[in-house]
Amino acid sequence: MVGRFGHVTATLAAAALMAAPNAVSAATTGAASVDGPTTARIGLAGADPDGLRQFATAVADPHSAQYRRFLTPAQVQEKFGPTAAQLKQVHQWLADGGLRVTGENSHWIDVAGTSDEVKKAFGHPPQPRITEDEGYEARAAAAVPAELAGTVSSVAGLVPEPQGMRQFSYRVTAGPRHRALPGDGINPGGPMQPATLEAPTTRVDPGGPMQPSGPGTPTANGPVAPSGPRVGVNPGGPMQPSGPGTPTANGPVAPGSPTVGVNPGGPMQPNGPGTPTANGTVAPGSPTTGVNPGGPMQPSGPGASGGPVIVGGPIKRSLPADAGDPTLPATTSAACSSDWGGSPATGLPEGYNKPDPLVACGYSPKRLRAAYGVTASGFSGKGAIIGIVDAYGSPTMHPDADRFAKSVGDKAFGTGQYLESVDRGAWKHLGDDVCETPAAWGGEEALDVEMAHGLAPDAVVHYFGAASCQDSDIAAALASVVDKHAADLVTGSFGEIMHSAGGDIDPALVAQEEQIFTAGAAEGIGFAFATGDCGDQAAGLDGPGCDQGSGRPQLEWPAASPWVTAVGGTALALAPDGTRHWEAPMGDLRSDLSGDGSKWAPLPGQFYFGGGGGASTDFGRPAYQKGVVPAALAHPKGKASLTPMRTVPDVAMDGDLLTAVLTGHTDPTLGGYGQDVVGGTSAAAPMFVAVQADAMQAAGGALGFANPALYKRAGTKQLTDIVASPKGAPKTISAVVDHGMFGAVHEARLFKLGADHGLRARRGYDTATGLGSPTAAYITSYKPAPKEEVDGDKNGDKKEG
């Protein structure tokens, strides 16, 4: 998860690696002027907030008589939502203060006014820091006007957002991006497997360093013209399925009619190259020498040393003059291990092992289904709806997902099996560097959609595109799911640290999202979020998943919430028969090959990438963790608190860069459609909700908030306990990414796996991998309720699961 609300895509590309950027940028929840904020979001407490939390706890607890006896959205609102009297009181107060209502739902009221009106209504903005003794709930309540106490729970937008959400997906390559094969075939290889092009081209795609352009005919100014009409572009509008067709008057697509020349990049992505304007965007149709219009905060092309090459940023890259440009590799390595350790790295110095193996090829959904017991369980998610929330929305997601599925031997989406709720007219922060571009977020969307479909191939997948990467817009997308019960399971692979150098996350935003998660639990909706890719997020870490604004170990929001399932990462090694060979904690130390090719330096390497986890400083220990999480882990590092705290992750699945997964999507900055090998806890989170969808089918109905049932299964064979030295793994787990030759220089990286920062895997629960990863026995452990209970029996002991 990267700033949940910003996206970082790290590429181990055929180039020298450069330091990863800090993906955090200043943003405000509401519009602001030099005199103060001019908008605010007023959180509604509801008729009985304590009763809502108690009910949500009971229906998620396998030991409760109310387990899985969920309410509809209407019932939740009738029982716990704001009353007519409460709403009248708030509206009258707003009218008296001259504030106007700009939006409203059962969770909050959005208002706007002059800065003086906002200041008069809510007082001076609170300080952007939360004291150790104050906590989030106290700070959120402190901003509520006294006359609205008990009716209003929080007021968001009075302080600037120090950051927005970051995505947590990272593209791993050591050669060209996989291109489409003739006849829509795709090379499913893995990293470093160049595919055959439909038509040769000598141009380099402007979207990334050393990426060959996609199939087609080069145009006069460099990029490749599409070989034919684009079909299946959904121009958006809420609740519109993504089938192919021509846009109608009100925005949806009329199925079956082709569309031609639609730019897959979304707003702010020009159809063709242009001249950069003063603010960094490109004027369509104007001459250019090959400038990449990319997204914010991404470094330019190959550099001398440092972190991974990041594809697609606003720091523009000029195209090489020709295919013989010296920045291109003279030879490209075309090797990876189809099974863990199956292919040794040759022609390189000794590292951790003799020899070190090549990186694993990208795992297909079929192999992941086998590894995690989905195939053996016999379940496929039928009857479940998986909701996926990210920022913006790719106009080619549906056809891309179908194309990818068929290329790896899986079923495409059936009729009505893929839905979208995307309103492109509402998109914000396009081109202002607050969020990455819609095209950049498209990679995260593809990963989430394709992993969910891959591990639950018969579930419905419904994509919800937030209007931007900011917390307030992400929260609005989450609320829309809950208010309509539009999904049974919801996942997001984004996040942000809660305490940054620029200030703390707005406690009102936290309080408002907590209410959404609680209401969802009452309805039987389970939420799962990625924990991030920088270990314990300690100060000074600078890997691609790290937020350099962090001054101490801490967790990412929203995975830190006690009302969601926090999904961490592992390194999954597959045996030749496709079964799980072993699984280790996700954490990588990186060493670089010296210029003369004689040694790796440094050795051991430096921390680069690792699953997020640790103890919260903001949320106390939830009841479901008591007796399972060791007391020594439930206290934040360096804190003398006597109160045990929430720890994450809860579970973990494959996300390591060296055991990454295969995806496919259209990215205009990378030359069109292609396949990528992608790592990060961004992959693990949608895998987990897919497994929950399979378990939901086994149970014959919704499971709701997963954590109480998960912790009930701690220490059983239903979960694989991930330890530091798994049986069957080498004493030191290592892998090589070989980029090939750049002139006389051999570019390669050596990684030591299982080395997360500040987090150690151990027997039982740990803050590196939580309870472990699911098995077939986990899926089949959920059983349908006995007939008499469905008919109204109140004996909770009869409910299984």
How would you concisely characterize the structure shown here?
The protein has 801 residues and is α+β, with helices and mostly antiparallel strands. Helix content is 19%, strand content 22%. The longest helix has 19 residues, at 681-699.
Number of β-strand runs: 42
Label the structural class. Answer: alpha+beta
Number of H/I helices: 15
Q: Roughly what percent helix?
A: 10-25%
State the shape.
globular
* Average pLDDT for all residues: 77
Radius of gyration: 25 Å
Largest sheet: 8 strands, mixed
Low-confidence stretches: 1-34, 174-332, 788-800
Please indicate the percent range of residues in DSSP E strands (runs of 2 or more): 15-25%
End-to-end separation in angstroms reads 30 Å
Could you explain how this protein is built, in words?
Helix content is 19%, strand content 22%. By secondary structure, the chain is an alpha+beta fold. The protein is globular and about 75 Å long.
Secondary structure topology:
Blueprint: E1 2-3, E2 10-11, E3 27-28, E4 32-33, E5 36-37, E6 39-44, H1 49-60, H2 73-80, H3 84-96, E7 100-104, E8 108-112, H4 115-122, H5 135-142, E9 152-156, E10 160-161, E11 166-167, E12 170-172, E13 178-179, E14 217-218, E15 224-225, E16 245-247, E17 253-255, E18 274-276, E19 282-284, E20 309-310, H6 365-371, H7 374-377, E21 385-391, H8 397-407, E22 418-421, H9 438-455, E23 460-466, H10 471-484, E24 489-492, E25 494-497, E26 499-500, E27 503-504, H11 507-523, E28 526-530, E29 556-557, E30 565-574, E31 580-585, E32 587-593, E33 600-610, E34 614-620, E35 645-648, E36 651-654, E37 661-667, E38 672-679, H12 681-699, H13 707-712, E39 719-720, E40 734-742, E41 745-752, E42 773-774, H14 776-780, H15 787-790
Parallel strand pairs: 1-25, 21-23, 21-24, 22-23, 24-28, 28-30, 30-36
Antiparallel strand pairs: 2-20, 3-10, 4-5, 6-8, 6-9, 7-8, 11-25, 12-38, 13-38, 14-15, 16-17, 18-19, 25-29, 26-27, 30-31, 32-33, 32-41, 34-35, 37-38, 39-42, 40-41
